[in-house]
Design goal:
The complex is a heterotrimer of chains A (416), B (360) and C (365). Chain A is 73% helix and 0% strand. Chain A has 416 residues and is mainly alpha-helical. The longest helix of chain A is centred in the first third of the chain and has 36 residues. The chains are: A mainly alpha (416), B alpha+beta (360), C alpha+beta (365). The structure holds adenosine-5'-triphosphate and magnesium ion. Adenosine-5'-triphosphate (ATP) binds next to β2 and α1 of chain C.
Chain lengths: 416, 360, 365
């Protein structure tokens, strides 16, 4: 009999689960209500009973607002009661579009200025952020797709920022990017140390030697190899070339003054309006927070590529470069399309991080289109719901066109 | 010259026999990424236990070095310095007042005795500091001492917890019910409903802000936590994810249960839900993250500080006061802590779940 | 008491009709087997009886009561599924008691029934395991146990043994037979294995393409198949068919001119058929004997001779190109390439089918 008794440790492990299971069974009396419902409407129609809560909420908070948005775009006033909102026709749209030049919003009236600034900023943001982030995400995913030890660890590390709330992300980076923040301190420190370092002739000579060595290795070796030298000969040649180069360089640049950098002046990263830094950091911080997600998806896509394809290519003597461009990337295309569409749609809706980080400033430098909608509708004294709804309609249209275009182009490419 | 082959080797190398130089570069690349991800958060962590003074002066040192002080005769806190004399001997002195290039100081041992004060050249004075984590940055806002009315952390925390818990429970319930109906029953219009629900994934939420707000207000949910909870319950992601999973549960199990006189609800509750537990876990984790980090929608619906969630409180707090940096950073850490803990323990499930569903 | 009646039952999926009006009466305590080739609608018919599938037209009648609209749970039947359909997240005990709990049965009674079933099926030692921790045969027993504890009026089995290996299948077949003997319930059992059907059934229903071809005792089906399909389906190796025409009709039977050459008498009535009508002559392999080629009605060029020791099989082709198999007791000296004559059974073992309709011509007395 004793051999039927499970070990003490398994009992301990099983107990909480069993307890949950027992609790689960006890909650069962809700069954009574549904039993009588089922008795009344029959088993088949219970499907609808299961669907109703979901459909109700979907209807109220997704479909109805979609319809309502169109209506609101044609109404004015500040009332939140739909029946009391006067119909104004195309006035809201006219107000947004009424502008001497859409490309230069500064000449527009208030609403147009806000809308067009937000739109151009968002377009710029998306045009830079999406390709940059996807490039880095793809490179990282490719590196992790190598036969990498601790892939789970790296994946988790890069994914971690995705878990952080936009507010936390913004506070962290705001704290780093303050004028008297750690970034400025670090940069100042680095410049100072560098200048201190190159002030010593020996250090500078060493540095030059290392650079020369690496350059020689990277340049001379492949060239030598291409002209048929054996690897050992190529390496030897490279080292000799490095020594010669380093010596020449060390003598030629004896004062080493060119290595001394100008003193670093702290930059007001998020405040200096003309520098372009605020937009840079908006893009950087947003990408920092979201890159891990796309990296994860791309990595999953890469890992789904059957390994034997590579082995087959290997057998065929396909070069690595060819494998990357003829196997990996084409097979990654479906994932890539998803990633591009998703990140583009999201980039268009960027709000949280940037609003907390810069508030759209300095001036209007990082004001995005969603911030325009938000502020038009919900801040300030005159709550211009109609204008905000009209802006939403325009943005939705733009998004739709962009998405369709995306899918169309990628379909074309997939076929052609 | 780095050739194209080198670059692709760096990107794509697999199962090499010997260590290739690109392996080193790959790890350097990854380590750089690691630093970029981890250092900002670590910097936030260590900064959160620094004193207000260290923060304002922006002390770039990692550890929370704090000025050592003694209580002076008039009840003033006096900074302690170490005076290095010409002969190399050292003396701990308290700083009383500046005197041009000199400073009026008094030995710490005799700090109460004004007659012992003397002048010492400033460049001979070295600050005396110790590592002193300022736990008060956390305890003051948490346990109600100091300026709690300005940042009632516990209330915000409770609001966030309430919203997250309720929304997650309801999300699981409502979406699993719908997924059950859409995966295990055959009825007219089923496929149309699936398509419609999934296509709402494509509606950018920001595009319906205004009408959603009007609807929520019309329902009397403005400035109510339920106004944040309810609109997001029905999640197309949730329905999609759960339905895909439930499709893999064999129909024969349900038929066996029907033969066993189980009602439809009982089938859902006792058969489907336990068997869909892995998918429910993924959705639960996602929902917790979504709701805990949610910002824009609460920002619109909640305008009274009593109903603020942690994220709202934090962003308002950030905007209002630059001089309470110490508390801001500490509260930021507390805000990111639950999510971080969840992540540390469930990291595998989260990344696997998201990689498999391709959804966030 | 459980008497089951199907009255012109049909079933349509979308536009496809898969059951074409089936009439069937099953008496209390009977063990009835549904057989037929894959896709003929056995499972569908069983599931309509169970209440898992709606009846398109016709009636399912249980003990005189029409139950078309009664939900599965309330019909008082129990079913054993092909895949067992054990609840993977419940222990064996929970699997057995789940249905009883749903019926709000008293705890003590549930325990009593479950323990009794466990004893009967020898699964007492497995009660705290999950289905995933059981072998195929053990799962099968649990699945049966789940049906047993319900004490149903009718047991329904849908190919319950098809996932088991051959040895276990024989053993479970015996156990199910014993179970039927002990409980005395009505059992309906679906299989496409005609050996299972022959060995287990009180009566067999042969289905083809949603139609009931014949319903009767196993030996009746074997001895007097109602049509060519049943004749070919029941029995292994299958019945040999030789085509021919009616050459003579008298009161003792008919004479058939075989395409393979020769004439043969079959003691059947030929009502409605004229001389010269096309017919199929059928005889089972076990009734054929090899004889000297000279004077034999049919000659066979042997293409394969299988010696199993206890019995032997001959395969070959006739002059008309039709294949014939013979099963001989003991061992034989016939070799591949030999030509033998065939003795085509006693008159009572010969069957004749209308080639146009496939229907069997009735044996005389
Ligand atoms: N839900 C359904 N929808 C449409 N057609 C179905 C459905 N279920 C069964 N069928 C069709 O009905 C016919 C009979 O199916 P059934 O499962 O009853 O066959 P079966 O005799 O049990 O076969 P098998 O021995 O392979 O289990 C098949 O042609 C099948 O394709
Ligand atoms: Mg079947």
């Amino acid at each position: 009999m004793s051999d039927h008794e499970p070990a003490a440790s398994t009992v301990a492990a099983v107990r909480p689960l069993e307890r949950i299971a027992a609790l689960w069974r006890r909650i069962d009396p809700i069954d009574f209500f549904f039993r009588s419902l089922q008795a009344r409407i029959g088993a088949k129609r219970m499907a609808w009973a299961f669907l109703v809560p979901n459909l109700l909420i979907f209807g109220t908070f997704a479909f109805w607002p979609m319809i309502l948005n169109f209506w609101m775009a044609f109404t004015g006033g500040t009332s939140t009661i739909i029946a009391e909102r006067p119909f104004v026709g195309l006035d809201n749209f006219r107000e947004i579009l009424d502008c001497p030049s859409w490309l230069d919003p500064r000449g527009c009236p208030v609403v147009g200025y806000s809308f067009w600034t937000g739109l151009w900023n968002t377009l710029f943001f998306a045009a830079v952020q999406v390709p940059a982030m996807i490039l880095v995400a793809t490179a990282t995913a490719l590196v992790l797709d190598r036969d990498m030890k601790g892939r789970g660890f790296w994946r988790a590390v890069y994914f971690y920022p995705v878990m952080l709330s936009p507010v936390v992300v913004a506070v962290i980076w705001d704290w780093i990017l303050k004028r008297r923040g750690i970034l400025n301190a670090l940069l100042g420190d680095v410049v100072e140390r560098w200048n201190g370092f190159v002030a010593y002739p020996a250090a500078a000579a060493g540095l030059i030697f290392v650079v020369a060595f690496v350059v020689a290795l990277l340049v001379v070796r492949p060239i030598a190899a291409r002209f048929g030298a054996s690897p050992a000969a190529a390496r030897g040649g490279a080292i000799a070339a490095a020594l010669v180069l380093a010596t020449i360089a060390a003598f030629a640049t004896r004062p080493w003054g060119f290595l001394v950098l100008a003193d670093f002046r702290p930059v007001n990263w998020l405040v200096d309006q003309r520098s372009g830094w605020p937009m840079f950091w908006a893009i950087f911080v947003y990408s920092w927070a979201h890159l891990g997600f796309y990296m994860l998806i791309l990595l999953a896509g890469l890992q789904a590529i059957p390994r034997d394809l590579y082995e087959a290519a290997e057998m065929d003597g396909t070069s690595k470069t060819r494998q990357l461009f003829r196997i990996t990337l084409p097979l990654l295309t479906p994932t890539m399309i998803v990633v591009v569409v998703l990140s583009l749609i999201r980039a268009f809706q960027v709000f949280d991080e940037i609003w907390v980080l810069t508030g759209g400033g300095p001036g209007q430098a990082t004001k995005m289109i969603v911030q325009h909608i938000y502020e038009t509708a919900f801040t300030g004294d005159a709550k211009r719901y109609g204008v905000a709804a009209a802006s939403s309609v325009l943005v939705a249209g733009l998004l739709l066109v962009l998405t369709l275009l995306q899918l169309f182009v990628s379909r074309r490419r997939a076929q052609g | 010259m780095i050739t194209a082959t080198d670059l692709t080797t760096f990107l794509t190398r697999r199962r090499g026999r010997a260590l290739h130089w690109t392996d080193v570069v790959a790890h350097l690349y990854l380590a750089f990424g690691l630093a970029l991800v981890v250092l900002p958060v670590v910097w936030m962590l260590v900064s959160s236990v620094k004193s207000q003074r260290a923060l304002v002066e922006n002390d770039p040192r990692l550890l929370p070095w704090e000025q050592v002080t003694v209580l002076g005769s008039e009840g003033r806190q006096l900074s302690v310095f170490t005076l290095v004399r010409d002969d190399g001997t050292r003396l701990e002195v308290a700083f009383l007042a500046p005197r041009g290039r000199n400073a009026l100081v008094v030995p710490v041992a005799e700090v109460g005795d004004a007659t012992r004060a003397f002048e010492a050249p400033r460049d001979r004075l070295v600050r005396k500091e110790t590592v002193a984590p300022q736990i008060g940055n956390y305890t003051k806002p948490l346990f109600g001492t100091g300026d709690t009315d300005r940042f009632p952390f516990m209330r915000f925390f409770w609001n966030s917890t309430f919203v997250t818990t309720m929304a997650t429970l309801l999300t699981l319930l409502v979406n699993s019910m719908a997924a059950f109906a859409l995966s295990k029953y055959r009825f007219r219009g089923r496929d149309a409903i699936v398509v419609i629900i999934v296509s709402t994934l494509l509606i950018p939420p920001t595009v319906i802000l205004v009408p959603l707000f009007i609807t929520v207000q019309g329902l009397g949910l403005f400035n109510e936590l339920w106004g944040v909870i309810i609109p997001a319950i029905a999640s197309p992601t949730g329905v999609f994810l759960l339905r895909q999973y439930m499709l893999t549960i064999p129909d024969e199990l349900l038929e066996a249960a029907r033969m066993d006189a189980a009602s439809e609800w009982k089938i859902y509750w006792r058969i489907i839900l336990p068997l869909a537990a892995p998918a429910l876990a993924v959705l639960a984790i996602l929902s917790v993250i979504w709701r805990w980090n949610d910002f824009m929608w609460p920002l619109i619906v909640l305008t009274k500080s009593e109903v603020y969630t942690l994220q709202l409180g934090l962003s308002t707090f950030k905007g209002e006061i630059a001089d309470n940096l110490d508390h801001l950073l500490a509260m930021t850490v507390l805000t990111l802590l639950p999510v971080t803990l969840v992540f540390v323990f469930l990291q595998k499930h989260i990344t696997a779940g998201i990689a498999n569903t391709g959804l966030k | 008491m459980a008497r089951l009646e199907l009255r012109s039952v049909t079933k349509t999926f979308g536009t496809a009709r898969v059951i074409h009006g089936i009439d069937l009466e099953i008496e209390h305590g009977e063990f009835v087997v549904f057989v037929g080739p894959s896709g003929c609608g056995k499972s569908t018919l069983l599931r309509m009886i169970a209440g898992l599938e709606t009846v398109t037209t016709g009636e399912v009648v249980l003990d005189g009561r029409m139950v078309n609209t009664v939900p599965a749970a309330e019909r008082g039947l129990a079913m054993v599924f092909q895949s067992y359909a054990l609840y993977p997240h419940m222990s064996v005990r929970q699997n057995l008691s789940f249905g009883l709990e749903n019926l709000r049965m008293a705890r003590a009674e549930i325990t009593r029934r479950v323990d009794e079933a466990a004893r009967m099926l020898r699964i007492e030692a497995l009660m705290d395991r999950r289905p995933g921790q059981l072998s195929g045969g053990q799962r099968q027993r649990v699945a049966i146990g789940r049906a047993v504890v319900r004490e149903p009026t009718i047991f329904l089995f849908d190919e319950p043994l098809s996932n088991l290996d051959a040895e276990l299948r024989v053993q479970m077949r015996i156990e199910i037979g014993n179970l039927h003997h002990r409980l005395g319930n009505t059992m309906i059992y679906v299989t496409h294995d005609q050996v299972e059907a022959m060995t287990m059934a009180d009566r067999i229903a042969v289905l083809r393409d949603g139609r009931l071809e014949q319903f009767g005792k196993p030996l009746d089906l074997y001895n007097r198949p109602a049509n060519r399909f049943v004749a070919g389906f029941i029995g292994s190796p299958r019945m040999n068919f030789l085509s021919g025409t009616l050459a003579a009709i008298d009161e003792a039977g008919v004479e058939v001119a075989l395409k393979a050459g020769g004439r043969i008498r079959v003691p059947v009535g030929a009502a409605g058929l004229d001389l010269g009508a096309s017919v199929d002559f059928g005889v089972r392999p076990e009734h054929i004997r090899p004889i000297e080629p000279e004077g034999a009605p049919v000659g066979l060029a042997v293409t394969l001779a299988e010696q199993l020791g206890g019995e032997s099989y001959l395969h070959g082709t006739t002059e008309s190109g039709e294949t014939v198999a013979a099963r001989l007791p003991g061992q034989t000296s016939v070799r591949r390439g030999d030509t033998v004559g065939l003795a085509l059974g006693d008159p009572g073992d010969r069957h004749l089918f209308d080639a146009a309709t496939g229907a069997a011509l009735p044996h005389l007395a």
